[in-house]
Amino acid sequence: MIPAAFDYELAGNIDEAISLLGQSGEAKLIAGGHSLLPLMRLRFAQPDLLVDIGRIDDLSYVRDAGDSIAVGAMTRHADVAADPLLGADCGILAETAAQIGDPQVRHRGTLGGSIAHADPASDLPTVLLALDAEFDVRGPAGDRTIAAGDFFTGFLESALEPTDVLTEVRVPKLDGPATYAKYNRRAQDWATVAVAAVQRNGGTALALTNMAATPVRALGVEQALADGADAATAAARVGEGTNPPSDTNGSAEYRAHLATVLTRRALEQLSA
Amino acid sequence: MKRIGLSVNGSPHELEVEPRELLVYVLRERLGMTGTHVGCDTSSCGACTVLVDGESVKSCTMLGVQAEGRSITTIEGLASNGELHPVQQAFHEQHGLQCGFCTPGFVLATVSLLEENSSPTEDQIREGLEGNLCRCTGYHNIVRAVQAAAGKELPA
Ligand SMILES: Cc1cc2nc3c(=O)[nH]c(=O)nc-3n(C[C@H](O)[C@H](O)[C@H](O)COP(=O)(O)OP(=O)(O)OC[C@H]3O[C@@H](n4cnc5c(N)ncnc54)[C@H](O)[C@@H]3O)c2cc1C
Ligand code: FES
Ligand code: FES
What we know:
The complex is a heterodimer of chains A (272) and B (156).
Chain A: E1 7-10, H1 14-21, E2 27-30, H2 36-41, E3 49-52, E4 62-65, E5 68-72, H3 77-82, H4 84-89, H5 91-97, H6 103-108, H7 111-117, H8 124-130, E6 134-139, E7 142-147, H9 148-151, E8 152-154, E9 157-158, E10 165-172, E11 178-183, E12 193-200, E13 203-209, E14 216-217, H10 219-226, H11 231-235, H12 252-271
Parallel strand pairs in A: 1-3, 2-3
Antiparallel strand pairs in A: 4-5, 5-10, 6-7, 6-10, 8-9, 11-12, 12-13, 13-14
Chain B: E1 2-8, E2 11-17, H1 23-30, E3 49-52, E4 55-58, E5 71-73, H2 86-93, H3 103-116, H4 122-128, H5 140-149
Parallel strand pairs in B: 1-5
Antiparallel strand pairs in B: 1-2, 3-4, 3-5
Helix pairs in contact in B: 2-5
Bound molecules: flavin-adenine dinucleotide (FAD) and FE2/S2 (inorganic) cluster (2 copies).
């Protein structure tokens, strides 16, 4: 299938992308295109202008930033997965990127696109939420930083304005274990449910994929663990604050069950 | 319309395309290279896999305009001087195909996989080809073909 007609402009740098976005109310950025083009082919999305940031090479990097690691928004999943710095100090991000889709998808899809798309079935947003990551955004009025916890506002909705470009993601260097437990029925599938668990600053942070309209923190589990509960008792509270969807991959009830099992396993893995 | 220049199998091409033309249609309909197939509408099947600057990409999920300045390899570009590429030869010898519809995509995904990991285990082969679907073979002979192409001892 073929997308509806649109204009196409290649942005040479971030500021040019922002001003091109301002030219039309229906303009959209395209990064790897691996969320946007499938929607455009089915005509679920019909932007009238695509602004391509795919050639802005200085948005693709992984850098040591002291206590944290900075990753450029255009860094592809394959490059996140293979990065030695992330592998050493924030392995959960690299390992999760390696689980996205398939090699062809990882050769094109980007970290920034995955975040900006704000799909509650996506893997990286959940991990970034559990990591308390920070997102740098540039818009017509300048730069600002948004905490992962404030970023995802609804199904495919985020704190980004239509003329904003996400530029950088910062994740903490970890000194404890972290894991992403993803359940899907077939190779290449999106997660039916997944759980990110990160031990950090003396506590455990957890976040869930596909358990609500946005990625969500499992605050009940975090509280139970802080109160000294064991893995199974804490995992039993994973449903608090969730609203899992029902679809062909599973009912809401099945998802709630799966979340409990995956959470217990993830917690057991952290303490193993 | 946008004017783009790209290299396909080593030959330069310049053409005018609509921004909405997917790379797979630029290859098939503009350049007449119909070896790259379209098997789905959901970016799932991998039949359209080509190499972009040496890496496997689903050409149904990339715009022709995004290929500006890139170097594309399709199935038509693998054999040289009448000799099959070693991956093609291995698919042939190990019966890694039946109807052949998925084969161009599998062969190019395999070339990219072996470029990144020249000696993959069976699990790494199966995971490395998870972006490609085959409705005929049941995958076993495809895995054998990749093992053969990687110079591995074949299981009985
Ligand atoms: C077959 C298939 C399987 C997949 N499987 C998985 C999976 O298992 N797990 C998973 O998490 N994902 C999966 N994905 C999605 C994949 O990870 C996408 O690459 C990713 O979600 C989007 O990144 P992109 O660079 O392709 O973004 P694009 O498609 O280019 O853009 C997506 C959206 O984000 C906006 N955008 C992009 N970059 C920026 C930026 N820097 N600033 C502001 N806005 C921006 C765009 O305007 C658009 O609205 C799959 C995709 C496919 C096709
Ligand atoms: S045609 Fe099926 S993935 Fe491209
Ligand atoms: S050989 Fe027929 S689909 Fe693979």
